[in-house]
Specification:
The chain is mainly β. It is 5% helix and 20% strand. It has one helix and six strands. The strands form three sheets. Strands 1-4 form a two-stranded antiparallel ribbon. The longest helix has 4 residues. The radius of gyration is 15 Å and the shape is globular. It starts with 13 loop residues before the first strand and ends with a strand.
Length: 75
């Protein structure tokens, strides 16, 4: 039986920032000289211990906790 992956969390996700949100904040940042049109990803909030799943085999390259600075906690 195939499982449809809609979000990378086993528990119901809470989206804290949508893709392309807040263009007024992100336009100051550039990639190859081109200003961003909004948030370049989707931010999700989850409880500690929530399983994160992937759509294919692989490995986690980086797990970071920046506290209240930068990106906060991310995988």
């Amino acid at each position: 039986m195939a499982i449809r992956l809609t979000f990378p969390l086993r528990r119901a996700p809470f989206v804290t920032q949508e893709f392309a949100a807040n263009p007024q904040n992100y336009s100051q940042y550039k990639i190859d000289g081109v200003p961003l049109k909004g948030h370049e990803g989707i931010d999700l909030r989850a409880e500690d211990g929530t399983e994160v799943v992937a759509c294919d085999n692989g490995f986690c390259q980086e797990v970071v906790d920046q506290g209240t600075k930068g990106y906060g906690q991310y995988i």
